[in-house]
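Hi, here's the filled form for the chain we discussed.

Project: internal
Contact: R.S.
Residues: 378
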Amino acid sequence: MRVVLLVLCAFHVQIATSAPAGPAPATKAHPKSSKSTFVPRTTVIWRGDIVSARGFTNDLIAAYRTEQQGLLTVQPFSTISGIDAVINGSADIAGSARAMNEDREVEKALVFQPVALDAIVPVTHPRNPVSAITLAQLRQIYLGRITNWKDLGGADVAINLYSIAAPLDGVEFSFRRLMYKRGEQRIAAPRLYLNTSKLEEAIAIDPNGLGLTTLSSSYANRGIKMLAVEGISASTQSVADGSYPLFAMLYVVQREDAANRAAVDEFVRFLAAPTALNVMRRHQLIPFAEAGDVYGRDGARLAFIDTAIVGVTPADVAAMPRVREIPPPMSAPRATLEASISTSPASDTSQKARANLQRAEEKKADSANGGPPATPSN
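And the returned structure, exactly as it came back:
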């Protein structure tokens, strides 16, 4: 098995500003002494998946500094590293290309706030003659049952399947939940990389390569070719109108009891500002606020996927168990909190919402331990 490692990189921005006028120093100052290091009003450490970093977060560094007088440090690596960093307090916010993993108890205390939609796209080398693939073929390829490009209408050569090493990676987790109902489904991919950026680099030099990335990562990458899925090409339009079936939600993940709570709330609010929304659109993302009733449409999308991969009637599919990729509405206290911090994080309403959520969860814990039944506050 060949694994390519990625060295973590962090972008730390500091801006020099003019010092206020004052008495002349007694001795001749160094030419640079008239400058002072910019002291940010807020500082936020963001860590997470490459998809979110490349999709919008990196471009927000300068805008956040200019508009909010804040310092944003971006550490792109992987979804799971970002989530775990928020849990242990070494990062303020995580960028995630997947929803909460209900099987990890430590994630249940986190707030997963949706930010944007991004298409999941299968990609290959531009010289590969195959230009389209079906959902059924994708499912069989990742199970190791289709291994040759000739079965997809291509050359009689083996498919070099690339994937991400971390089983809880955002794009892979979201894709596997859609196709197998399990985000941790085992797959037959011998070529593993730490993130989609390195995966794309590998496919760009391999005419027989195949892997998954996102529209925001690959739309401007001429070294790879996106494959149409079920005859539909990935685009913001095809995701928005529901015709393209494979997409993931991008989230910012935070702790409710974060030590840097005020700065985190301010940054989350900034993500709804026109500047941030324009950055997302420029990177082929659909801001969540502009995505319409994503949850309401999710059942139809999943039914379409199941029909395509199982080959049964829609009525049969309707009776099958299904794991929703887009999470349902939250309990009233948590929903109130997330809605409040999106618009007015420092308000009395947000503080009351946090208190309500804390009381609700304490009552829930008491109930689980044999105490009185929980009655959430609203």
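Let me know if anything looks off before we file it.
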